[in-house]
Design a protein that fits this description.
Mean pLDDT: 93
Helix content: 40-55%
Largest sheet: 3 strands, mixed
Strand order of the largest sheet: 2-1-3
Low-confidence stretches: none
Strand content: 5-15%
Structural class: mainly alpha
């Protein structure tokens, strides 16, 4: 597993997340509820959790394998992926009240209608892709 190095890699993993989430609904739901750092693609109006989209060529199959057998050469946690995304884009994750409602609507369409019930939305930070 390699961290992303450019915006195209981030977009690719973000699109994979969105296209595979229904088939991996349990894992997608857990990620949505646990994520603090969100990447937003303004073109497609879709989001991706940094812990998923911060890895190049990420899929749910690879993600599940990494959870069961964490890779030795790369630490599998959100802080590292957050840093890789910020370095690749030269942007920082910031609070963004405008995106909170969009994230909730997107998540409810993606997996289940109450996916963010009891989730503290004040923790969310966003990075808008250029």
């Amino acid at each position: 597993m390699e961290y992303v190095a450019n915006t195209q890699q981030i977009l690719k993993s973000l699109r994979v997340f969105n296209s595979q989430a229904k088939a991996a609904e349990d894992r997608a739901t857990k990620l949505l509820r646990q994520t603090t750092y969100w990447v937003f693609d303004p073109k497609d109006k879709k989001f991706g959790p940094s812990k998923f989209v911060g890895f190049a060529e990420m899929t749910f199959q690879i993600y599940e394998k990494a959870i069961k057998q964490p890779p030795r050469h790369a630490r599998f946690h959100g802080q590292r992926t957050k840093q890789a995304i910020e370095k690749a884009t030269e942007f920082e994750f910031l609070s963004d009240d405008d995106l909170c409602g969009s994230l909730v609507s997107w998540g409810e369409r993606l997996v289940i209608s109450d996916v963010f019930v009891h989730v503290n939305q004040n923790k969310w930070r966003f990075l808008r892709l250029p």
